[in-house]
Amino acid sequence: MTDRLNSAQPYAIGLLRIVIGLLFAVHGAASLFGVLGGAAGTDGGSIPSGTWPGWYAAVIQLVGGALVLLGLGTRGAAFIASGSMAYAYFDVHQSTALWPIQNGGELSVLFCWTMLLLVFTGSGALGLDRLSPGARPRPARTSGPRSPSRPDPGTTRPGARLPHPEVGAVPYRAPSGRLGATTVRLRVTGSLPP
């Protein structure tokens, strides 16, 4: 069960990214263009161009939300979006009351922390970041950190030599594909230290 959940993780992150990016971009469009109810506090209108900080925040929301939605430059866009929401919370909301539920800052807090999460997770699946020339998939780490001198046994190819003479353990999955008892095959290359 855990393996299935772990294999679905990039898709769950991708779906979270798409939903948050869409909501963030729509919030910015409402503030800039007066659509979908308009900007908060304007009675359905838009924020006047160049007004500090509302208009700039709306531009960040529209552009940053679109980039996050597409998964293009996700980490950078999410970092800027997270910072703008932290600023919005402390500048607009927190001065009226301490808790977000009291000061109406729940949305700013949720956007801030969700965007910060995307800074660390990246775009997940279905993002345009994966199409960039330098992008390459990273294998999921199944155990604790490995030292550079010892490769991850799960990635050692049959017949490949280990960088240092040592015993390498390679996990083996039964042909049926069922998860359960895992047998370990040992391979000794070189000689063992005394």
Task: Characterize the structure shown.
This protein folds into 2 domains: 130 residues, no CATH class; 36 residues, no CATH class. Helices cover 46% and strands 6% of the residues. The protein is built from 5 helices and 2 strands; from the N terminus they run αααααββ. The two termini are 42 Å apart. The model has no long low-confidence stretch (mean pLDDT 79).
Primary descriptors:
single chain, 194 residues, mainly alpha, two-stranded antiparallel ribbon, 5 helices, 46% helix, elongated
**Domains, number:** 2
Low-confidence parts: none
Mean pLDDT: 79
What is the total tally of β strands? 2
The biggest beta sheet, please? 2 strands, antiparallel
Radius of gyration: 24 Å
Order of helices and strands: HHHHHEE
Q: What's the quick description here?
A:
This protein has about 190 residues and is mainly alpha-helical.
List the helices and strands and how they pair.
Elements: H1 2-33, H2 54-70, H3 74-93, H4 100-103, H5 106-121, E1 167-172, E2 183-188
